């Protein structure tokens, strides 16, 4: 088990004053069966009131408006979380049992439907079906599909954007964790395995010393249901361990962006983001 301190700062600056902005932040983790939030806070400048709630998918949301003129907006989320590894455990469920069970639950049937971002190309469909055909149970098949996608993709920033689809990233065979998660989701859903998008953080250095602050970034991975929900990180082709901190879940990235908002003004905003992760013990 690790104790991780996370500071995620997102800022917008404008060449002049905007008159108002309306925002939702999904930057604070929640406690689950594998992580416990010891403390968390959200600081906003200019100061304003915040309405906090848990959304439909179970993600913590902070909703806030800034209704006075401002030339900059800064949101800083700070969390201290105890995290334990979540090793894969394949349930003894057959393909037929999964096909009968998945449509009966709201939480699984919703994660069978492709979205614009996850809809796979024909190559990915063929890959998923080929891999699944070699496995008698959906649990091991899901893992094999995720590994195959991770092996086929090269992690590279700047090739795709925040609005890119799985098909676009697959065509380039390059992308970031968001793209690789979307491709994996599309492949799993295509073979009848419910799968959901997970956003959070990953401590990038397993060997970091206690107290050493390391530059990090937001991360994405997947969870699939084959009798119970299991997680896997296809970008790094690793199980979910004590370096992963979960923030939100959804159908794709659109359900869990760290920050979403609009503002009233004629200026283009300039974005700056920084994430620092420190191992406390």
Put the structure in a nutshell.
The chain has 6 helices and 16 strands. With 281 residues, it is an alpha+beta fold. The protein is globular.
Low-confidence stretches: none
Q: Strand portion, in percent?
A: 35-45%
Number of helices: 6
* Whole-number total of structural domains: 2
Secondary structure class reads alpha+beta
Reported CATH architecture of the largest domain: Roll
Radius of gyration: 19 Å
- Helical residues, percent: 10-25%
Question: What report would you give on this structure?
Answer:
- This protein is an alpha+beta fold and 281 residues long.
- It has 2 domains: 105 residues, Immunoglobulin-like (Sandwich); 150 residues, C8orf32 fold (Roll), CATH 3.10.620.30.
- It has 6 helices and 16 strands.
- The strands form 4 sheets. The chain has a 5-stranded antiparallel beta sheet with strand order 3-6-1-16-10, with no helix packed on it. A 5-stranded antiparallel beta sheet has the order 13-12-11-9-14. Strands 4-5-2-15 form a 4-stranded antiparallel beta sheet, with no helix packed on it.
- α3 crosses α4 and α5 crosses α6.
- The longest helix has 15 residues.
- The model has no long low-confidence stretch (mean pLDDT 95).
């Amino acid at each position: 088990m690790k104790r991780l301190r996370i500071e995620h700062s997102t800022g917008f600056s404008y060449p002049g004053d905007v008159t108002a902005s309306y925002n939702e932040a999904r930057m604070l983790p929640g406690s689950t069966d594998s992580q416990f939030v010891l403390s968390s806070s959200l600081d906003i400048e200019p100061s304003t009131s915040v309405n906090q709630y848990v959304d439909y998918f179970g993600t913590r949301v902070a909703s806030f408006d800034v209704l006075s003129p401002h030339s900059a907006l800064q949101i800083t989320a700070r969390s201290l979380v105890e995290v334990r590894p979540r090793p894969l455990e394949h349930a003894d469920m057959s393909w037929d049992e999964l096909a009968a069970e998945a449509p009966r639950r709201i939480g699984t049937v919703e994660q069978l439907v492709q979205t614009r971002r996850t809809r796979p190309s024909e190559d990915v469909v063929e890959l998923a079906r080929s891999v699944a055909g070699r496995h008698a149970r959906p649990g091991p098949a899901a893992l094999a599909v995720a590994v195959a996608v991770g092996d086929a993709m090269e992690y590279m920033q700047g090739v795709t954007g925040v609005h890119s689809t799985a098909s676009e990233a697959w065509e380039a065979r390059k992308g970031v964790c968001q793209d690789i998660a979307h491709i994996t989701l599309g492949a799993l859903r295509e073979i009848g395995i419910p799968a959901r998008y997970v956003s959070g953080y990953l401590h990038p250095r397993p060997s970091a010393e206690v107290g050493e602050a390391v530059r990090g970034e937001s991360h994405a991975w997947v969870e699939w249901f084959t009798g119970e929900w299991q997680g896997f990180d296809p970008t790094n082709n690793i199980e979910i361990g004590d370096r992963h901190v979960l923030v939100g879940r959804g159908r794709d990235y659109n359900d869990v962006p760290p920050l979403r908002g609009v503002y009233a003004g004629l200026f283009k905003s300039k974005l700056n983001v920084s994430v620092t992760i420190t191992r406390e013990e």
